[in-house]
What does this fold into?
Amino acid sequence: MPVSYTGIIDEHKTVRSAVGLFDVSHMGEVGFFGAGAQSAVQKLCTNRVSTLAPGAAMYTVMCYDDGGIVDDCIVYRRGEHDYLMVVNAANIDKDWAWIREQVGSRCELVNESDDTGLIAVQGPKAARLVSRLADHPLVDVPSFHFARTHIAGVSCLAARTGYTGEDGFELACPAAQTPKLWSALLEEG
It folds into this structure.
């Protein structure tokens, strides 16, 4: 993955004025399943995950007992007993081990990192670009909410989240389908 294509200033301006694509498939994804999923996620995070309705997400941090930060993350409530946590790429192994140790047998845990592709589509034109390829419009999905949809024929969790400071979506999909999704977004954009 190149660090820069045309130059950092040009790329920054493009994301601020139009749309940019970022392959962030290196991020880590952990699934929490079962009746104890909410309790498990709450044990790990500082924010009240009980406030999340299905289809909503929140930015939060995981802390050690002494208050030091394990990692920052985004938690998605995919269903009544189904949560997804996206953690930073450099911390996947450390976070996974710490999460398993803390959660114990509260719920089923699945490291979904190797099976998940993640493309960030960011900028003021991102929502329109993604919606043109989706099987239903996504422009009305609120910030820090998501929809399950197909984009260019690829099954996606389309989350109105991102790290650039601009509007956009993070599109989680099956890892094997990431190149197809990337190519469709690049061609349409």
Remarks:
- The radius of gyration is 17 Å.
- The CA atoms of residues 25 and 140 lie 25 Å apart.
- The chain has a mean pLDDT of 95.
- Strands lie at 20-23, 28-33, 57-63, 69-79, 82-87, 108-111, 116-122, 146-151, 154-159, 168-174.
